[in-house]
Each structure stands twice: as C-alpha cells, then as structure tokens.
C-alpha cells in the first residue's frame, strides 16, 4: 500500500502517483502491473479517507467495514474503471445517521479526487441472500477484498456468509451467469472474430476471462468451502494460454483507457494501428502490422472463449436443471461411438480417435446433428491432431469423411469446432494463411476465416429453403456476411 507524505494534499498525492503509474505503463506496456498499482493506490486513498471520516464524526469501527468488489477486489483496477466498494455492517446500523454520513462522505471525496466510486451499503444478512433482482452483486462478492474497518466482520463475510450463500444458491448463480453470457455473446454476434471487437464484453474478451474465474470459485466454494486462486484450477495447457491472453488484454485495455481518457473498450481500426505501432501486448516499441497484431488478439480471444465455454459446461453438468433434463430428448441420437447428453457429444472410447477416420467421424456426427462437443471430447481431439498431420495418416477414407462433413446440414457448426481445435489447419496447412486474417475494408465485418464459414452456413440455409419451397435468401443472422464480401462470393 502507498503511503502519502503528510506535507502534500491527498489530491496532489493521487495526481502524482497516477502520473507515475501512467509513465511506467508507457515505458513497459505492462497492463497487469498498472492495474495492480492503481488498485494499491486506491487502497491507500480509501483507508486514509475512512480514517479521516471516522476521526471527525460520531461513528465507530466496530461492526462496520469497507471491502473492494469486482475488478477492484481482483486488484485489476484499470485507468478509468469503476471503484466498487462494499460498506458492510453487522446489522442495520448502516441506517444510522453516522454510518450514512461515512458512506456518503467517502464516496463524495473519491469522486472529487477523480475516481468513479460506486458504493454498495449492505448488511451481513443481505450479503448472504441472493437478490433475484440484482444477482450481479452476489457475483461481485466472489472478488471481495478487505480494505478498512472491522476485520472480524469481513472475516465472517468471507469465511462463513459467502461460502454458505454459494452452496445454497449455486445453481441459481450458474443459471444467471449462463444467461448473462448468452445475452452478451448474442449482442456481439456469437463470434470472437469482429474486426472492431469490444475487448471487454465480446466473446473471448476480459469478461469471459472473469467468467472462468467465477465458475472455478463457485465450484470450489460449493464443494470444499474454501477460497482458492481460480487460475490454479484451470486445465493445462489451456490455462497457461489464457494467462498469456490475459496479459495481452490487460495491456490493450490500459492502452485504450489512457489513449481515450475514459472507460472505452472498443478496438477501432485507428486504435488497432496505434497499439500495433507501439507494440502493446507484444514488445514495447517493436512495431507490428495492424493485421498481425489483431491476429494475436483473435488467437488469445479463442483460448479464453474455449476455456470459459468448457467451464460453463462442467459447472452446468454437475447439477442438471429441469431444462437440462428436457434437453436430454436428444439422447436418442447416441450410438456405438458417441453418447449425447444435455446437447453435447461424449466419447464412448477415447482411444478410437487415434484413427484419423474416426476423428473426422466425430465431426461428421456433429455436422449431422448440430451438437456441441463436450470438454473431454475437445481435449481428446487436440491430443490426437498429429494423426491428421502425417501423410501416412490420410487414407482415402479421410476424404470421404470430410465430404460427409461438408454436405451435412450443420456443416458450419462442425467446421467451427474443427477450426477452434486446430483440426482444419492440421488437415490443410494452407488454411493457416486465413486463420484470423484481417482485411481492412468496408465490406468485411469479420476475419476471412469467419466469413468463409458464414458462407458455408448461408449456402446450407439456401439449400434448406429451396427444399422446403421457401422464397428468398438464407435467413440473416447476427453473423450474416455482406453479399458483396469478396471472400464470400
């Protein structure tokens, strides 16, 4: 924690430290370090204001404390992020004038200093109950961190109240996270490959990284009532890939905040070019072409999206809801090779996928029925990709299986899974040339590979309409590509 010299005002101290943190970022481009230092600076300010407010007012430290929530609680406070603070009381003493004055005064002073403070006054009892109208607050408690005041009260919150709430409301919390994620992904077209993505909210962005952490914490608190570092529970090597992706996104978000002077997270073409020129997330001062820099972004986003999707599947499957049971109507699709459970494909014999024909048979099954792969199936696929890369591992049957995938009604679903897991590049090294390839012109909304898959998707939709006698073009969707797109003609 920073210590402010007594001879300067708190405002001067905040401004000088803020300037120092920015200068360090401009030199190192280390976004995680900048966010961590800003969190420590905010800790110092909050503790100082809390002490000053109590010394001049009638309040008492007993039964009252302050805690950081959300990104501030994670010590990931970006230059223009909100400073979320929980004002916690043991009972309803927050309704007393003295405590209300402390809450209002600290919030006001933080705003005066230039921090966007968001206060949440709650009792211990309120923190232990899931508010159906505001479940986001309960999620934010998963990142709570002590700041000032009654440390014993905070210990009760962290060691008793939150674990009990998670164990009791686990299914509702997960349902809420699933729904929030679905709506957020729908808003961004259910694809990571937007050419001007929002690096916080889009699929594969920082919010998906946080989602993976929340899901790991919920699972551990529910099973063992203990707090852990969620990254330590993520599967390897995907967890390590996501760690590198987080470093990149932190650097990029700090860059965007500093460059725009506000909490704006859209990677526009202009900002992409500036970030690439300065080596943000790469090597400071080592310029990259913008297209290459964005390729790095998309590949990082793909790792995070894959991890969060896997963890959502695992947590949802642990205690199936009535909806999940209803989804099991598709279990009749199971056969000798694959089991269908809750809309996902599970392998009966993992060793069978060492055969390249059987490996493509999995994707052919997916293309026929439009099902998702289970996390375990994805892991087995990635382990057996070398069998697709060897010339000896490409018998004639392989091309028969590939044709079966391409003509199936849900070909795009299977091809996206193959692309995400590396199977397309293993089969066709030339496909790597368009992997996450950016074409910066008016007609393109997505990368070339995504446009290509959208073309296949729309071709199948046209075929269905011709078969059923429906008029018009394929139904448009949030992913629909422009008919003028040069890579989709």
Fold and architecture overview:
By secondary structure, the chain is of the alpha/beta class. Helix 1 runs antiparallel to helix 2. It folds into four domains: 1-165, Beta Polymerase, domain 2, CATH 3.30.460.10; 188-319, Four Helix Bundle (Hemerythrin (Met), subunit A) (Up-down Bundle); 323-425, Hydrophobic Seed Protein; 434-489, no CATH class. The chain has helices at 10-28, 31-56, 70-73, 97-113, 124-127, 135-140, 151-187, 206-224, 238-260, 269-277, 290-318, 322-327, 356-369, 375-383, 386-389, 396-407, 411-421, 423-427, 448-468; strands at 64-68, 83-89, 117-123, 145-149, 338-341, 344-347, 372-373. The strands form two sheets. The protein has a four-stranded mixed β-sheet, with helices on both faces. A three-stranded mixed β-sheet has the order 5-6-7. The chain starts with 9 loop residues before the first helix and ends in a 21-residue tail after the last helix. The chain is globular.
């Amino acid at each position: 924690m920073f210590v402010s010299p007594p001879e300067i005002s708190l405002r001067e101290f905040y401004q000088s430290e803020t300037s120092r943190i920015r200068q360090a970022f401009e030199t190192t481009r280390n976004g995680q370090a900048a966010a961590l230092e800003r969190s420590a600076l905010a800790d110092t300010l909050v503790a100082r204001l809390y002490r000053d407010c109590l010394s001049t007012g009638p309040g008492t430290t007993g039964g009252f404390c302050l805690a950081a929530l959300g990104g501030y609680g994670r010590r990931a406070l970006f230059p223009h992020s909100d400073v979320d603070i929980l004002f916690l009381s043991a009972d309803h003493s927050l309704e007393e004038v003295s405590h209300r004055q402390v809450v209002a005064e600290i919030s006001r002073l933080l705003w005066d200093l230039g921090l966007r403070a968001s206060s949440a006054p709650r009792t211990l009892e309120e923190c232990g109950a899931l508010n159906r109208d505001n479940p986001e607050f309960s999620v934010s408690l998963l990142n709570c961190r002590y700041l000032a005041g009654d440390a014993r009260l905070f210990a009760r919150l962290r060691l008793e109240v939150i674990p009990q709430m998670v164990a009791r409301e686990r299914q509702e919390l997960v349902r809420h996270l699933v729904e929030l994620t679905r709506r957020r992904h729908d808003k961004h077209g259910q694809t990571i490959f937007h050419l001007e993505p929002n690096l916080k909210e889009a699929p594969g962005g920082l919010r998906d990284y946080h989602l993976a952490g929340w899901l790991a914490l919920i699972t551990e608190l529910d099973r063992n009532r203990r707090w852990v570092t969620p990254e330590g529970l993520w599967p390897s090597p995907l967890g390590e890939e996501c760690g590198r992706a987080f470093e990149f996104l932190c650097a990029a978000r700090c860059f965007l905040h500093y460059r725009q002077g506000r909490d704006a997270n859209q990677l526009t073409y202009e900002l992409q070019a500036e970030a690439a020129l300065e080596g943000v997330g790469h090597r400071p001062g080592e310029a990259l072409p913008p297209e290459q820099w964005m390729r790095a972004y998309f590949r990082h986003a793909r790792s995070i999206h894959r991890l969060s999707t896997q963890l959502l599947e695992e947590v949802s499957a642990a205690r199936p809801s009535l909806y999940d049971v209803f989804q099991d109507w598709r279990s009749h699709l199971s056969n000798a090779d694959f089991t269908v459970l809750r809309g996902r494909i599970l392998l009966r014999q993992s060793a069978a996928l060492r055969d390249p024909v059987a490996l493509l048979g999995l994707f052919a099954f997916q293309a026929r029925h439009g099902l998702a792969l289970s996390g375990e199936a994805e892991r087995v696929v990635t382990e057996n990709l070398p069998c697709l890369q060897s010339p000896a591992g490409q018998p004639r049957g392989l091309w028969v299986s590939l044709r079966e995938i391409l003509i199936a009604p849900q070909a795009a679903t299977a091809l996206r899974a193959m692309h995400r897991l590396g199977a397309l590049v293993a089969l066709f090294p030339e496909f790597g040339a368009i992997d996450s390839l950016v074409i910066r012109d008016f007609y393109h909304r997505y990368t070339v590979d995504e446009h290509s898959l959208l073309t296949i998707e729309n071709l199948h939709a046209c075929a269905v309409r011709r078969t059923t006698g429906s008029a018009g073009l394929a139904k448009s969707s949030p992913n629909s590509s422009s008919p003028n797109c040069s890579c989709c003609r």
